[in-house]
Design goal:
Elements: E1 2-7, H1 14-26, E2 31-36, H2 42-53, E3 62-66, E4 85-89, E5 95-99, E6 114-118, H3 128-131, H4 133-141, E7 148-151, E8 165-168, E9 174-179, E10 190-195, E11 198-204, E12 216-226, E13 232-240, H5 245-248, E14 258-262
Parallel strand pairs: 1-2, 1-3, 3-5, 11-12
Antiparallel strand pairs: 4-5, 4-6, 6-7, 8-9, 9-13, 10-11, 10-14, 12-13
């Protein structure tokens, strides 16, 4: 059973090991894969959830995500109470279990065939993803009728914010929430791209490698999936051939705005 763990614990952090140990306690056959995202980056987590969950996956695949900044309330929190745990069943058969915080469910909200709250306390531990949630995961996988609560209304999950940096991969490519099908710029045209406070010149391209070494491309990337209608969605990326777009733009934060205009 493939289990993706998407979380902001940090690469190689002890927290990943502790969570993995607890998941294996309740799901002994779990094959765990880890995808770290920056601290509190629910937008990046939601993007990873969709990329993994809305593309073909082995039967029984489960995505467990935990990026919980506890920003739903500003007041002091009794017993470490935080955002509630939710469950989604996707058209691919992949199931998603994670905290409904920020944009963590935004990319799969409209595609999900089922959206439910999970019957687990929202308080009682500072480390809920280790102490409370894995047991609930095990109950859901085993088909416990009491593991799931009422439906999550789509209005309780925010829409995907447009024109933002959503993820930086290991090559320094910057993935965005700019939909390729909505870009009305001719391939080969020169554009000005502003990310946060940094503005650079780039070449609009149908493919990242259509630019020369050292040039910046604004092109459809490798990330995307099919919508329930069958239409394929692709997301634009900023790609610096032979370098790092992330470094060129000053290491922008997840959620930084992206503005594109003709040069």
């Amino acid at each position: 059973m493939l289990v993706h763990v998407v979380a902001d614990y940090g690469r190689g952090d002890l927290a990943f090991a502790e969570v993995a140990q607890r998941i294996k306690l309740y799901l002994p056959d779990a094959e765990l894969l880890y995808t770290p995202v920056p601290p509190f980056a629910t937008l990046a987590a939601g993007f990873c959830v969709a990329q993994l969950g809305l593309n073909p996956a082995p039967p029984g695949t489960l995505i467990y995500h935990n990026v919980a900044p506890r920003e739903d309330e500003e007041e002091a929190r009794a017993e470490n109470i935080g955002e509630r745990l939710a469950f989604a069943r996707l058209p691919t058969g992949v199931c998603v279990i994670g905290v409904n915080a920020g944009h963590a469910f935004s990319f799969v909200r409209d595609a999900a065939e089922e959206l439910r709250w999970v019957s687990v306390p929202a308080a009682g531990s500072q480390f809920r993803s280790r102490d409370l949630f894995p047991e609930a995961m095990g109950e859901i996988v085993e088909g416990s009728t009491g593991a799931l609560d009422e439906e999550v209304w789509p209005a309780e999950i925010p829409s995907v914010p447009q024109n933002r940096i959503v993820y930086a991969d290991g090559y320094g490519n910057l993935k965005t929430t700019v939909e390729a099908r909505k870009v009305e710029i001719q391939s080969g045209a020169t554009v000005r791209v502003r990310v946060g406070e940094v503005e650079l010149e780039a070449t609009a391209s149908d493919g990242s490698f259509e630019v020369e070494e050292g040039e910046l491309a604004f092109a459809p990337g490798s990330s995307g999936w099919k919508e329930p209608s069958g239409e394929e969605i692709l997301w634009m990326e900023l790609f610096l051939r032979g370098g790092s777009a992330r470094e060129a733009f000053g290491d922008p934060s997840i959620g930084a705005s992206v503005e594109v205009a003709p040069a």
